[in-house]
Amino acid sequence: MRLEHSKKAHAVAVAVLPLAGTGVALLLARGWGVGPLELGLFCLMYSLSMVGITVGFHRCFAHGSFEAHPWVRAALAICGSMACQGPLIYWVANHRIHHRFTDAPGDPHSPYFHGTTPLGKLRGLWHAHLGWTYSHEIPDTVTYARDLLRSASTRELSRLYFVWLVLGLALPALLGGLFTLSLQGALRGLLWGGFVRIFVAYQVSLAIGSIAHSHGNRPFRIRGQSANSALLALPTFGEGWHQNHHAFPYSGVFGLQWWQVDPGAIVLRGLAALGWVWNIKVPPASAIAARSAAPEESWGSEPSPAERAARAAASHPQSPQ
Ligand SMILES: [Zn+2]
Ligand SMILES: [Zn+2]
Fold it and tell me: How many angstroms separate the alpha carbon of residue 111 from the centre of ligand 1?
């Protein structure tokens, strides 16, 4: 019950406070302008939190797509927590449930199952984007994230979620204050590196559940309605290649074609070049070819009942994918 209350309070706070902070930032910008300080701290903190989510929470912890030094894993967990998408182990359990039940009953954020009328589709999109953060069932972490619960350091990193969240606000405020040696600079840092950054990063991340499960290209024959969204690829640091990811959940690289820009994979390869990350899993070309279908553009088509049933009976909950 307490957890249920915390979940709802967190969902409302993360939806509303960064939006309000962004409003204040824009109002103040009319007088102060938006300069290199604001843009620099926004880009720095945005990159840190997005790398933390896609390379850390998603590719490292949820799917075990590569191996890394413990301090790299810790840094990724801390950066991901700054994105305000919930504690690491909670996030991972929820995400694995999404893979197990993709676009079938049990999926915490499928845009389907709200009817096929235009209004029903709109309600589905709202649920997949933001509504689910308030209404989803608390994930069973013992079933879906047992591997992470076994690690004392990962448990601790997850438990300290709110410390990292506050750090994500304090850091840009401190940098803004130091660069300008003023309280006004600290406030500008807090607003642009904190609130505006969280607002934008949160909305583009949520768009993977809503937009990239309803609109885009589907080059693979797989269950579920995930799709590649080129528009989302860059702002999400590679998450936009979402059907690629559902086709090969274990892959550390989401952009499977040379032209599919995947900033998360670029960061990962950079870390590997430094020797901090190794054994990055990538599907062989033969596997990619075997699962490929004729490219099609699909706009919000519903999964068939047979497909829903097959998906519901799909993979084992404990498999980290
Ligand atoms: Zn998905
Ligand atoms: Zn995933």
Answer: 10
